[in-house]
Amino acid sequence: MKLLKQSLALLVILSLVLATAPGGFAYQTDESTASAPVQPTQQTPEQLQQLVAPIALYPDALVAQILAASTYPTEIVEADRWMQQHPDLKGQQLGDEVDKQQWDPSVKALTQFPSVLANLDKNLSWTSSLGDAYVNQQQAVMDAVQVMRQRAQQSGNLKSTPEQKVTTQGQTIVVEPANPDVVYVPAYDPWLVYGSPLPVWPGWYPVPGIFIGGPAIAFGVGFGIGYFGGFGWGWHRWGFDWHDHAVMYNHDRYISHSRTFVNRDNFAHRAGDFHGGQAPRGFAGAQHGFAAPHSQPGTHSGAFSGFDHGGIARSNSSRGQSSFGGGFHGGGGFHGGGGFHGGGGRR
């Protein structure tokens, strides 16, 4: 009996060490054995600037979709795998099939930009950190985006081009498509484009189509978004209220009902909901509130056990390995062999 108690004590100590070790070791859990999440410290402004660097120069509506979707890392994995399995779907047919899926509207919206979705999947550890930061430091994340845009503008890399319109409204820099029906996703090296080099996110994997080497911005093939205009998750449903530091969806503040991350400030006061508000289309009411990360019907839940309740992802994803393997899907966007044309002059 004494030996058993000593063994259990050793196991508890080992578990605590693993849970609090730098970098975070992922662990498996389920709803019946879920424990309180590890409480990470708030990230500094410099850390948040590094975190948002890969997306800060995207058009506003796309940044909004990414921040919202980053709170659903398991669905991002599902969606990217689904896209790899349906490479022939394009345009209206793609929209019709995506609309049938039970993903959050933000995740559905990213299927319009396969290379962006692939980036979130391939760099899942970064995506998970972005989602956690958005949940717990939303205003600071928005401020970090603006700081990085200012740095890129000062370095001469963020300006209006035939592909995008860049305007300054007070202290806010707004990025929009030059043509409202065609969205160009800028390709750049997020660690070089802002002037002074940034530390590279650990394990960062440069995904083809949205990454180029060197301190400049380029644009590839535009994404036509007209096919998706009739869907409730389409491009024009998304935006920013920079004044109130809010992602906007359908002209209202976006509400995430993800169960992957815990809002540490509000957990004790609002245990029944993430932020409150209406549920995303296609989700049953029983899915709201705090619980273990979920997977949709027809998927293998074991594939997502690399997440704990703090949204920590397994390190193999941060090394450029998709959670399900397979190559990058380029349907409807950047195609192999298609060159880039510069938008922010190379130096």
Question: What can you see in these coordinates?
Answer:
- This protein has 347 residues and is α+β, with helices and mostly antiparallel strands.
- The chain has ten helices and ten strands.
- The chain has helices at 2-20, 45-52, 60-69, 73-85, 91-99, 105-110, 114-122, 124-136, 138-154, 315-318, and strands at 164-169, 172-177, 182-183, 186-188, 217-219, 223-224, 238-241, 246-249, 252-253, 341-342.
- Strands 4-5-10 form a three-stranded antiparallel beta sheet, with no helix packed on it.
- Helix 8 (124-136) packs across helix 9.
Topology:
Blueprint: H1 2-20, H2 45-52, H3 60-69, H4 73-85, H5 91-99, H6 105-110, H7 114-122, H8 124-136, H9 138-154, E1 164-169, E2 172-177, E3 182-183, E4 186-188, E5 217-219, E6 223-224, E7 238-241, E8 246-249, E9 252-253, H10 315-318, E10 341-342
Antiparallel strand pairs: 1-2, 3-6, 4-5, 5-10, 7-8, 8-9
Strand count, sense and closure of the main sheet? Answer: 3 strands, antiparallel
Give me the Rg, rounded.
Answer: 20 Å
Arithmetic mean of pLDDT: 76
Strand order of the largest sheet: 4-5-10
Order of helices and strands: HHHHHHHHHEEEEEEEEEHE
Low-confidence segments? 12-39, 268-347
How many strand elements?
10
- The geometry reads as globular
Q: What is the overall number of helices?
A: 10
Helix content: 25-40%
Give the amount of beta strand, in percent.
5-15%
Structural class, judged by helices and strands? alpha+beta
Distance between the termini: 71 Å
